[in-house]
Design goal:
CATH topology of the domain at 3-161 and 213-218: TIM Barrel
Shape: globular
Largest sheet: 7 strands, parallel, barrel
CATH superfamily of the domain at 3-161 and 213-218: Glycoside hydrolase/deacetylase
Helix content: 25-40%
Strand content: 15-25%
Order of helices and strands: EHEHEHEHHEHEHEEEHE
CATH architecture of the domain at 3-161 and 213-218: Alpha-Beta Barrel
Amino acid sequence: MRTIDLNFDGGEGEDDAALMPFVTTVNVACGGHAGDEATMRATVRLAKASGVTVFAHPSYPDRENFGRRRMTLPPADVERLVREQVDSLRRISIEEGVALSGVKPHGGLYHEAASVDATAGAFVAAVRAVSPALVVVSSPGSRLIAAARAAGMRAAAEGFADRGYEADGSLVARGTDGALLTDPESAAAQALSIAADAVVTTRGGTRLPVLVETICLHGDTPGAATIAKAIRRALEGAGFRFSPLVADYQIRSTP
């Protein structure tokens, strides 16, 4: 039986509880683009009650733009801010009796780390300093995946159910026609195509190879819970089993 992880970005002020029944992983905002100690703790508790795996979701400190703007920061600054955010969620997770399993960057940091070696290296150094057991998630073929694997860490590629793709594999820019898939059946069809056939149909109509281990949907996409339900139903109907991404061991010690 084929397996897939279904993740969403949480702790960002949306209705996380509505998505928890359909996913296996939540990426918790760590205070950069959204979130604070109270929201992190609430999201971790909700994940624990729902049996959902917890990942950290660090970002550039850019709440004004919801962390979606790419920033050019020295690698040392990237390493510091990522380590601080991940370690903060790690501490809260331990206090709540939950294992922190991985890290996925958000927005501008996601795209910068995927394409710039120095940013990717700084990101991996920060995560590895917290724990080399954490799984790193990024786009297929990204610099970040290469850097994590070079550091001896597990890295996994993800696809997007609710975002449009360009022919070069990049996501259609937000605010552009085709950037978001808000129709549940369309998002479910894209998720199924990615998971089952390892391809996605781009905005221009071409078929792009996309080999992934996890599929993401965004909690702030309109109708996110309905979309999540449709994706889950489509993948289950195709015979997929849902399983979170984990490394060989997880953080369980006290800080």
